[in-house]
Design brief:
single chain
């Protein structure tokens, strides 16, 4: 198995149900071919650097996975057919990956998410605190 990253951009007027359907079908192709999803991240709506098919916004989805070249071929075939997909890019990040490396990568992603959640909580706590330099006595 190999490790891949795929980023795809969907049309901004694509509904949440259709986005979910596209993401789930992509996941299903990987899993059906014996692969494993390491990380799936919906980045959401972003402004495009340039117009793509007359669109200035796009819904970004990032997928890091272990899979076969056949799965990548099938995913890209479906993306070419689907009008909701504006653009996609798949990059092979590792020529060979085993089960232990997949588990380590998944644990690293989970740790990173947990650390981000903790820092988000800390940031929100800091914003709620009173600033000692500002007083109401003036």
């Amino acid at each position: 198995m190999r490790r891949y990253e795929t980023i795809f951009i969907l049309r901004p007027n694509t509904g949440e149900e259709e986005i979910t359907k596209i993401v789930e079908s992509t996941q299903q192709i990987i899993v059906d071919d014996g692969g494993t999803i390491i990380e799936l991240n919906r980045w959401g709506m972003k402004k495009l650097a340039y117009l793509i098919k007359k669109e200035s916004l796009g819904y970004y989805v990032y997928c890091d996975y272990a899979g076969t070249p056949e799965a990548v071929t099938e995913i890209e075939r479906k993306f070419r057919i689907d009008d909701a997909v504006l653009k996609y890019l798949t990059v092979k990040t590792a020529a060979e990956i085993n089960e232990d490396e997949i588990q380590q990568a998944m644990e690293a992603v989970n740790e990173k998410k947990a650390a981000a959640e903790i820092s988000d909580e800390d940031d929100s706590d800091d914003s709620d605190s009173d600033d000692p330099d500002i007083s109401d006595d003036e």
